[in-house]
Design a protein that fits this description.
Elements: E1 11-12, E2 18-19, E3 27-28, H1 31-41, E4 48-49, E5 56-57, H2 60-71, E6 76-77, E7 86-87, H3 90-101, E8 110-111, E9 118-119, H4 122-129
Antiparallel strand pairs: 1-2, 2-3, 4-5, 6-7, 8-9
Amino acid sequence: MRRKPAAMVFTKGEDGKFICPCGCPKTLKNRKFMIGHVAVDHHDNPQYRCEKCVKSYNCQSALERRLWTHTGSKDFVCKHPGCNKKYSQSSTLLAHTKQQQQGKAREKKAKCPNCMERFLDVAHLKRHMM
């Protein structure tokens, strides 16, 4: 069972989401999810290290998810008419599909100065630039 790290304070940003107290750009709408994120991604003694970048994780599944970002493989395709978006993880496609069904497609406001790709927010842009 995951436990909250001692003396860890979780604060909310302007959008109402919890900000990662470890300094990464991750924001989550649920405090329980943030506790899990900190326990998995920012554990003091990570056992699994990505060979392609500097990130390290406390569980194998988190490392496997990270490795998908390096392959460039995007096997999960949106089936919504007129949408050709592809994702490397089924969970990301599911979140996209739910937004499409609810008519909540958000405008991508943050733009990368290097490749001009657009992102929903600054946190996603920072993650892209890492």
